[in-house]
Prior knowledge:
- By secondary structure, this protein is of the alpha/beta class.
- It is built from seven helices and six strands, in the order H-H-E-H-H-E-H-E-H-E-E-E-H.
- It has a domain at 52-225: Rossmann fold (3-Layer(aba) Sandwich), CATH 3.40.50.
- The chain has a six-stranded mixed β-sheet with strand order 1-3-2-4-5-6, sandwiched between helices.
Amino acid sequence: MSDRDEWHALAAFTPARLALGRSGNGLPTSRVLEFQLAHARARDAVQRPFNARLVASALDRPGVQLLTTQATDRQSYLMNPDAGRCLSEASRRRLERGSHDAALVIADGLSSTAIDSHGAALARLVLDSLPTLNWAPVTIVSGGRVAIGDYIAQALGAQFSVVLIGERPGLSAADSIGIYVTFAPRPGLTMDSERNCISNVRPGGLALEDAALRLAWLVKEARKRRLTGVDLKEDAPDLRGIADPRGRAI
């Protein structure tokens, strides 16, 4: 029996599982195998070891620091979320306080696949999109959650934290990165309402270049208003093709 029906045309507009077809009273074998593959990719994204050194090598930027959290393994990371929000003692000792505009933090989060695949490329675009900022040394964190950026940014003396982190994988995307920007980050900041998030950053979702431009707009607006979160609406215009007098995209 054909796996096409009257809903099939809708599949061209969304990665959602629509118009899967039928084979008797069940799904076609190809659709079952697709689902099993997507499920396996999602599990791998959560469980596979994070190669922080590979990301640092791909970023190719001097001064990058590799840090760890109190989540000593993947099991403790998943079972104890607070462990991924605090740096290990050894990592805390490595951070030197300075005076910086922003700290860029790259963390594996719930998808090491995402960061391994395009974390370094996105980080380069972020840094290039905000060239006038005084950036703290880039940090790459194994076993990190979003709030780890608060600890790191404060320890480095940064006004903003920008966290690139692997997002919880779904059955249509296992390689999505979230970008979180926080003004005046500090340990113990648990209110997500004080952050701005750009989600679904991946080649098959929000393009890396577009995400970097949107982040640049958010950071510039946040510096003017000295806040992030629900009071800073993400209503950026279409920034593609707009450039500053030096020809650099803004």
